[in-house]
């Protein structure tokens, strides 16, 4: 990945993600399936100007779906759990 803005797709706002943010200062983000931990860390630090302690990634395979006779599959996804260093704060929803 050459461009850091291609690494991060969108933040994930789930109940589990909000609980992680409040308790352990961790953030859930959906990332590009081809990116690795080092690229995710570099992108977060450069875009949001925060210090990242650790990055954990999760590959999630797409589910099989059926519409009538045709079979299909939803897209594969990759999530990243980003642990920020103590004292760092990142609010992805500003003004809301």
Describe this structure in words.
The protein is globular and about 55 Å long. The protein is α+β, with helices and mostly antiparallel strands. Strand 4 and strand 5 form a beta hairpin. The strands form 2 sheets. The protein has a 4-stranded antiparallel β-sheet. The protein has one domain: RRM (RNA recognition motif) domain (Alpha-Beta Plaits), CATH 3.30.70.330.
Helix content: 10-25%
| Inertia-based shape | globular
- Residue runs with pLDDT of under 50 for 5 or more positions: none
Strand content: 35-45%
Number of strands: 6
Give the CATH level 1 class.
Answer: Alpha Beta
Number of domains: 1
Strand order of the largest sheet: 1-2-6-3
- Roughly how many Å is the radius of gyration? 15 Å
**Amino- and carboxy-terminal Cα gap:** 32 Å
Q: What is the succession of H and E elements?
A: EHEHEEEE
Main beta sheet strand tally, sense and closure: 4 strands, antiparallel
Class per helix and strand makeup: alpha+beta
**Which fold name corresponds to the CATH topology?**
Alpha-Beta Plaits
What integer is the average pLDDT? 91
Under CATH, the homologous superfamily reads RRM (RNA recognition motif) domain
What's the architecture, going by CATH?
2-Layer Sandwich
Helix run count: 2
Which key phrases capture this entry?
alpha+beta, Alpha-Beta Plaits, 2 helices, two-stranded antiparallel sheet
How would you summarize what this structure contains?
The chain contains 2 helices and 6 strands. The chain has helices at residues 15-24, 37-48, and strands spanning 8-11, 26-31, 52-60, 64-67, 70-73, 77-84.
